Hints:
With 73 residues, the protein is mainly alpha-helical. The protein has helices spanning 3-33, 35-61. It is built from two helices and no strands. The longest helix has 31 residues, at 3-33. The model has no long low-confidence stretch (mean pLDDT 82).
Amino acid sequence: xxxxxxxxxxxxxxxxxxxxxxxxxxxxxxxxxxxxxxxxxxxxxxxxxxxxxxxxxxxxxxxxxxxxxxxxx
Length: 73
């Protein structure tokens, strides 16, 4: 495995772990305050999660990106 791919995987894993911890603390803090405030925090978080999910799905299923898979390295 090339070194740049390994570093990219490690960066993505660390970023995902950090995002998971951050989202968990937001949810815990929102629920500790009150359910009404929790909804105020969780609605934008759900919207951002949905947008990120759609972007990642589009990137994975994009036929335009397949062009680079056929290039000889």
